[in-house]
């Protein structure tokens, strides 16, 4: 009898545990402003409800020596053991747009988390929090203006 109960519990755990880790696929669409200078570096990251760094969603820009200019993001990521492999891409030029597929854990949506985007251009300005969006279901598809090199951004779930 104990073996049957154990087997049932193991099966129940196997079927319910994946539900705890569901993630939403999302698309991040960014339109850059027209500016003079080389392509911009961007860091897209999440912060926890208390404002502290949580995780990186995407980094645009191939030369890591310039990441230090993405000050809000680098402050958080430097205190973590996070690997940036496979979440990096090319920098984004003046007036260009980009779309990135990201995955966000369901448990973080409507839980007080925020999406932040820092931007920087070599020999140009550095913009901590060029865009900040609360991570809520209500923001899906809403276009917001940036404060620096980003003209507009939208996240769609």
SSE blueprint:
Layout: H1 2-20, E1 23-32, E2 40-47, E3 53-60, H2 71-77, E4 88-89, E5 97-105, E6 114-121, E7 126-134, E8 143-145, E9 150-156
Parallel strand pairs: 3-4
Antiparallel strand pairs: 1-5, 1-9, 2-3, 2-6, 6-7, 8-9
Provide a descriptive summary of the structure in words:
There is one protein chain. The protein has 157 residues and is α+β, with helices and mostly antiparallel strands. It has one domain: Immunoglobulin-like, CATH 2.60.40. The protein is 17% helix and 41% strand. It is built from 2 helices and 9 strands; from the N terminus they run H-E-E-E-H-E-E-E-E-E-E. The protein has helices spanning 2-20, 71-77, and strands at residues 23-32, 40-47, 53-60, 88-89, 97-105, 114-121, 126-134, 143-145, 150-156. The strands form 2 sheets. The protein has a 5-stranded mixed beta sheet with strand order 4-3-2-6-7, covered by helices on one side. Strands 5-1-9-8 form a 4-stranded antiparallel beta sheet, with no helix packed on it. The longest helix has 19 residues, at 2-20. The chain is globular. It starts with a helix and ends with a strand. Residues 1-20 have low confidence and may be disordered.
Q: What's the quick description here?
A:
By secondary structure, this protein is an alpha+beta fold.
Shape: globular
Percent strand equals: 35-45%
Give the ordered list of helices and strands.
HEEEHEEEEEE
Oligomer: single chain
pLDDT < 50 runs, ≥5 residues: 1-20
Structural class per helix/strand content? alpha+beta
User: What is the CATH topology descriptor?
Assistant: Immunoglobulin-like
Query: In total, how many domains does the architecture comprise?
Result: 1
Radius of gyration: 19 Å
Q: Give the class-level CATH name.
A: Mainly Beta
Average pLDDT level: 88
Straight-line distance between termini: 46 Å
Number of helices: 2
Number of strands: 9
**Order of neighbouring strands in the sheet with most strands:** 4-3-2-6-7
Name given to the CATH architecture: Sandwich
User: What level of helicity do the residues show?
Assistant: 10-25%
The biggest beta sheet is recorded as:
5 strands, mixed
């Amino acid at each position: 009898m104990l073996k049957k109960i154990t087997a049932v519990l193991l099966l129940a755990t196997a079927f319910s545990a994946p539900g705890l880790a569901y993630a939403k696929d999302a698309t991040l669409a960014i339109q850059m402003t027209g500016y003079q200078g080389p392509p911009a570096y961007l860091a897209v990251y999440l912060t926890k409800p208390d404002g502290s760094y949580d995780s990186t969603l995407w980094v645009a820009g191939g030369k890591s020596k310039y990441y230090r200019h993405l000050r809000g993001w680098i402050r958080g990521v430097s205190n973590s053991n996070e690997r940036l492999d496979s979440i990096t891409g090319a920098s984004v030029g003046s007036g260009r747009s980009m779309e990135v597929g990201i995955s966000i854990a369901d448990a973080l949506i409507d839980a007080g988390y925020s999406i932040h985007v820092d931007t920087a251009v070599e020999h140009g300005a550095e913009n901590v929090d060029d865009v900040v969006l609360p991570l809520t279901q209500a923001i899906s598809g809403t276009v917001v203006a940036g404060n620096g090199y980003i003209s507009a951004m939208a996240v769609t779930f």
